[in-house]
Design a protein that fits this description.
With 463 residues, the protein is of the alpha/beta class. The protein is built from 17 helices and 20 strands.
């Protein structure tokens, strides 16, 4: 089925904006652009395929397949044009570097859209914060937002090029695991409002230190369209507060402390996981379980008000948004309550998961089945040991630690008072499942939390 959406841009625009070359006819150059894909399997008639190289594959191998599927054009490296039959040369857009060309195309298209953009970055909570903001603003405006996890150097320009031209606000997520990655993304998006959720240990092994992580996240400010633009920061994160003192942009803090202009109080989490909080005397309830989601909701509360949306409408939107299946969902199975939070993990999100476990546990034992937190580099042993300590302080009854750093978790748990017989080290998720089948009891509440690669959701699936 052909793509039904055509952007208010043509193939000629892509050639010009990407500083590329093409021998396409004048009539072909006027063809409106459909979706832009880097995966030839998803191309439909009228779409554009971009050939990108990865460590394991080369998109140039799939150009002919994409064109046969109906792509109106393919963006390729200029040096690769000669490998293709002469009869398809007129359907090629040749650039020195296809990825850089797509970035330039997205940047030019963003300027043509000429709508407000909100950009969200941070160590934790980016996706949920972006979803809350987009959902709230979507009650009044047509909102374009990041698709899935398209938040990196490839996904961000493709996200912008997916906008139809009918949007009135854009909400995009910017992610990085190295320095000098957020800046180029912000230059493409050119946000009017920047949101930074926090500075934490996510990818610390790649950034090198929390200070370098903070510098990387604040690269988002370099892309703001105007000096008068707005920066929305977690006011309970002192690294963000200190950096804010150096900025000339207008800053709004959100959080729980008195310095926050958007301040949540009277937070409650029911045994079923319903989380609610009060801002300026108005109570909001979330469809997602966990007090950590309050931090994701607060920027949406502020921006909803900023764009003239009523408190009651904001509240309805926040309540309607449900948790991703692997981002804190609570399920009962075999008489055991599971908190399934297996999308990713780092020290900050582990703290949030443990807090949720304690909030929703009732009657039975508190059990933590935790796996490796990855990309922590030289900090790995210490931070996994601290995780074990945190489990002990939270008075977790049973710990099952899966992965290469499980021994460090066990050491911290043992030193913080959890009995050795209630601590189990296992090599992987499969072994964690077998241990869970043996030690879990009816009435237990179980946290499943690990980095994505551990696939700890297998414990719930197989229980």
């Amino acid at each position: 089925m052909p793509s039904t959406i055509r952007r208010p841009i043509t193939l000629a625009n892509l050639v010009k904006w990407g500083k590329a070359h093409s021998s396409m006819s004048a009539s072909d150059a006027r063809i409106a652009v459909g979706d832009v894909w880097m995966d030839s399997r998803k191309v439909q008639p009228g779409d554009v395929f971009v050939a990108l190289r990865s460590e394991s594959d080369d998109g140039h191998n799939y150009v002919e397949k994409a064109l046969a599927a109906g792509a109106s054009a393919a963006i390729v490296a200029r040096a690769q044009v000669g490998r293709y039959p002469q009869q398809i040369h007129s359907r090629l857009i040749a650039a020195a570097d296809p990825l850089r060309a797509v970035g330039r195309m997205a940047c030019a298209y963003r300027l043509r859209l000429n709508i407000p953009f909100v950009a969200v970055t941070g160590s934790n909570g980016k996706t949920t914060t972006r979803q809350f903001i987009a959902t709230v603003l979507g009650t009044r405006f047509t909102v374009g937002q990041t698709s899935g996890n398209w938040n990196n150097h490839i996904g961000v320009p493709l996200t912008v090029l997916r906008f139809t031209g009918r949007e009135r606000i854009g909400v995009v997520e910017l992610a990085a695991n190295h320095k000098k990655e957020i800046g180029p993304l912000a230059a493409i998006v050119q946000p009017d409002i920047a949101v930074i959720t926090n500075i934490g240990y996510a990818h610390i092994g790649l950034f090198g230190s929390l200070s370098e992580t903070a510098k990387a996240k604040f690269e988002i400010v370099s892309g703001l369209r105007h000096r008068s633009n707005l920066v929305v920061l977690n006011g309970d994160d002192m690294r963000l507060v200190r950096y804010a003192q150096k900025m000339k942009h207008r800053v709004v803090f959100y959080g729980l402390s008195k310095r926050c202009g958007v301040r949540a109080c009277d937070i409650s989490v029911s045994p079923s996981g319903e989380t609610s909080f009060v801002v300026d005397g108005f109570r909001y309830a979330l469809g997602m379980p966990g007090r950590h989601f309050v931090y994701s909701a607060l920027p949406a509360v502020f921006l909803g008000r900023w764009f003239g949306i009523s408190e009651s409408t904001i509240a309805e939107a926040l309540r309607a948004l449900e948790a991703d299946p692997m981002r804190g969902r609570i399920e009962n199975k075999g008489g055991v309550r599971f908190v399934i939070d297996c999308y990713n993990a780092n020290p900050s999100s582990m703290r949030s998961g443990i807090a949720l476990l304690c909030d929703v546990a009732s009657g039975g034992r508190k059990v933590a089945i935790v796996g490796d937190m990855l990309e922590l580099g030289p900090f790995s042993a210490r931070l996994h040991r601290q995780l074990g300590t945190r489990l002990g302080v939270a008075r977790v009854d049973v710990v099952i630690a899966a992965g290469q750093f499980g021994a460090h978790v066990a050491d911290g748990a043992r030193r913080s008072g959890i009995r050795a017989r209630d601590i189990h080290c296992v090599p992987d998720a499969a072994a964690a499942l077998e241990t869970a089948k043996r030690v879990l009891r009816r009435g237990d509440t179980v946290l499943l939390k690990a980095s994505r690669a551990v696939q700890l959701e297998r414990v719930f699936d197989g229980f």
